[in-house]
Write a structure and sequence with these properties.
Elements (H helix, E strand, L loop, with lengths): L5 E6 L7 H14 L3 E5 L3 H6 L2 E3 L27 H14 L3 E6 L1 H14 L3 E5 L15 H22 L2 E6 L6 H10 L3 E3 L7 H13 L5 E6 L6 H12 L5 E5 L11 H19 L5 E6 L2 E6 H6 L6 H10 L2
Helix pairs in contact: 1-9, 5-6, 6-11
The structure holds 6-O-phosphono-beta-D-fructofuranose (F6P).
Length: 326
Amino acid sequence: MATIKCIGILTSGGDAPGMNAAIRAVTRTAIFHGLQVKGIYRGYKGLITGEIAEFKSQNVSNIIQLGGTILKTARCKEFRTPEGRAIAYETMQREGIDALVVIGGDGSLTGARIFAQEFNIPCVGLPGTIDNDLYGTDSTIGYDTALNTILDAVDKIRDTATSHERLFFVEVMGRDAGFLALNGAIASGAEAAIIPEFNTEVDQLEEFIKNGYRKSKNSSIVLVAESELTGGAMHYAERVKNKYLDYDVRVTILGHLQRGGSPSAQDRILASRLGAAAIEALLDDQRNVMIGIVHDEIVYVPFSKAIKNDKPIKAELVNVLRALSI
Ligand code: F6P
């Protein structure tokens, strides 16, 4: 196998707090091992337009604490076409980039997998998404920070929910995955979580909500994962409003504020470990794998598994929420 001398790094898809910590770790570990590093801007788009700059150690100074991504990010339609990927490959050759580190979610790693196979490029992925929906890692970069942002918001909503004795539906992100909603509900003491992995009927919901109203406080908070499968918070609020006229219902959609902010200690450490492991993996001839951490150990998950396999939600967590909200 050809020796790797220059690594290209990009962030793609939705940004996630901790991506900068990962960029820093990849860059510095690569330089530590005597490799050259090139930062590719705007995800795969930068490979097509050639927006690329050499990264030295100082290019990644003072970024570990920043949310977002200094490399910018994009969802690139052109890269989904064979023509777009052919241009991207030409750019890599022209720039002398021998291997790629891609930081992103499901769609980004799918792109990496196809590109790596088509042109036989050494490529590793890092799980960067607030959704935590990648198989083969206990946590994705950005998930812990987003969870803490949700807690902060729900704690505040609870103040007004309690004062007005209202029922709040709070919609959180997750793109068809219920990790943020379920664990956010457990950690914030919400009465229920509506997640795409489990079907929640309105009647069943009433039972959950009554749990809140039975307590000394006459208010309830229900976290709803955004998803076509759940229909989102508005949908549930309408259904409950129409059926149970007694409840004073309100909706809060947390939206993109969940994607911002300074990464938590856990996300910074996760991103630093994964970034360092990405370079070690490439030097160790690992190809087409996502680096994850399972039970505190670094693991190498073939792209095919990380992308295709559904990461299961533990039924135990659903039961914990149910028991604790009585
Ligand atoms: O994948 C991360 C995520 O924030 C999802 O939770 C959400 O569905 C989606 O991205 C939103 O994407 P956009 O920023 O393009 O609206």
